[in-house]
Amino acid sequence: MKKHNYMKKILLIVIAITGIMVWQSCQYDWYDPVDYIPPPPGDTTYFSLEIIPIFNNSCNSGSCHGAGGIPPDLSPANAYADLFARNQIDTVTPENSKLYIKCAPGGSMNKYCQPGDPELILQWIKEGALNN
After folding, report:
1. Vertex 64, ends 108 and 120: CA angle to 5°?
2. Contact 24, 16 (CB under 8 A)
3. Contact criterion met (CB below 8 Å) for 122 and 130
4. Domain residue extents for the chain
5. Residue 70: its pLDDT value, please?
6. Cα torsion for 6, 10, 11, 14, to the nearest 10°?
7. Using CA atoms, how far apart are residues 127 and 12, in angstroms rounded to an integer?
8. 5-9, 59-63, 127-131 — which is least confidently predicted?
9. Are 91 and 125 contacting, i.e. CB atoms less than 8 angstroms apart?
10. Phi, psi of 86 (to 5 degrees)
11. How far is CA 49 from CA 10, 45, 58, 69, 113, in A?
12. Which pLDDT tens digit goes with each residue over 34-44?
């Protein structure tokens, strides 16, 4: 009987040590979901990382296309929904998108765009104009 109790104790110690080792081997990379921006894979154009900054630099400052300004509302919180609600995006024929036409060379808003912005907007629309 004494040997049986001894084996039970050994087994419990082994289980406890194994449990501690398994628990200690778990590693988590914690991140704040509000601040987390996934790295862009490959050549994907990201609305949140590349298109919104265009709006922030050129369009939604002051009383132009910000919240409560001239439509469409290009503020970060409303831009995506408002662009589609106001038919500014044509994913079937991206070159016919009003957003692209206005920002492209010769467009009414081109003077507010930086070099490369129209091409980036067009690329994003060609990729399906995702809210990514």
Report:
1. 55
2. no
3. no
4. 47-126
5. 86
6. 180
7. 58
8. 59-63
9. yes
10. -100, 15
11. 56, 8, 15, 23, 16
12. 555 555 556 78
What's the one-letter identity of residue 38? P
Neighbour tally for 26: CB within 10 Å: 6
Residue for token pair 């265009």? 54
* 48-69: pLDDT as tens digits: 999 999 998 888 776 688 888 8
* pTM for this prediction: 0.67
**The two three-digit tokens of residue 69, written as one number:** 């300004």
| The predicted structure's pLDDT at residue 67 | 82
Phi, psi of 19 (to 5 degrees): -60, -45
State yes or no: cis peptide before 72, omega within 30 of 0.
Answer: yes
